[in-house]
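[job 4471] stage=fold_predict status=RUNNING
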Amino acid sequence: MLSQDQKAFYEGNGYLKVEQVVTPAELAELQQVTDDLIDTSRQISESDERFDLDSGHSAEQPRLTRIKLPHKQHPVYDRILKRSKVTQVLNDLLGPDTVLNTAKLNCKAPGGGAAVEWHQDWAFYPATNDSLLAFGLMLEDVTEANGPLMVIPGSHKGPVLSHHANGTFCGAINPDDPLFDRDRIVTLTGKAGDMTVHHVRLLHGSAPNRSDRARKILFYECASADAWPLLGGSSYIHSLGQRKFWADFQDRMITGTPCFTPRLEQVPVTLPLPPAPDNTSIFKTQTSGGAKSAFA
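[job 4471] inference complete, writing structure tokens
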């Protein structure tokens, strides 16, 4: 699926954009299912296990920051990851044995949809090695105006910056950190059906959505099967217990076979502890943890 030039670009820069990675029919199904889920959120007035609500949400005007664990809410999200060109990109970058850590669909409502402060995913869920990445499949056109993903090329090869504020994990770096190089920021826009890829240690963030259109991006966070999560990370999997974890793990296998001998690498790790007062989503973690905004 990917050319050698694309693989080399990802290796050197820590990110990649792949155009039209899903078919028109796959995209239309994803869009319809997503719209139906957003419509369902009209029935609730507080965030729950399915939806993370944005300020101003109402039955008349549903506003979401996120649809949680979409692969558990409708089979199309699971199928696109496991049986499409998305799967081919995954195997090109991580090899034949891969597992899903988690998924989310960030909706970014129009007219001020919440920013995602600058961070490295690795700070949230460190593992025995850093063969992990995130896909961002665009379900609508993403422009400069509606809060696109922004990245700092090459930062995946540098240090893991502090994601703590006042001794608490806040899920974001301090924008005043001297190692945060704003001058190198690259903005990733695209058409519906395009997909971004970013390495687990790449610095990235996104501004509020100031447009009149939603910014719906389906994120899959994936790992090589030999990259085992460290206890203390923020994923739901740590609360399952051994038997439920095993059943969930089998559902999360994407391609190949499980690996029960983790590959141990010399990687920089700071556990995301103590947790923010509300760590039910990155938005709540950054807000309740006292993260300083880069977009204020």
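[job 4471] summary: The chain has one domain: 4-151+185-271.
[job 4471] exit 0
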